Amino acid sequence: MASPPLVPDFGAIDEGHLERMTLGDKSLAREVLTIFSTQAASMVAVLASRPADAAALAHTLKGSARAIGAFAVADAAEEFEDALRCGKDVSDRLAALDAAVEHARATIGERLER
Asked: What pTM does this model have?
């Protein structure tokens, strides 16, 4: 029998977490999701150029993602950050991060259209 996952498998955005973090304020949730969507895409674009502060930028993205419940983005940002700090090739991790961000952005876009 397979063990359950350590972290529940939520969609791109954990709606319950987002609701708790925004104290149920739907307007605030919309605002933080809009900001996250824009900034996350920009951050990934900057990370692709491998700036000197890439690990710190990935760390910031990880924290922002966790704050809104985008846990797949947070995990991918953490893996990218860890690989950078260890001097490993990050190409695959950047692709995974980009995919996680795009999935979150698509989910956010759908949510904001409701």
From this structure: 0.88
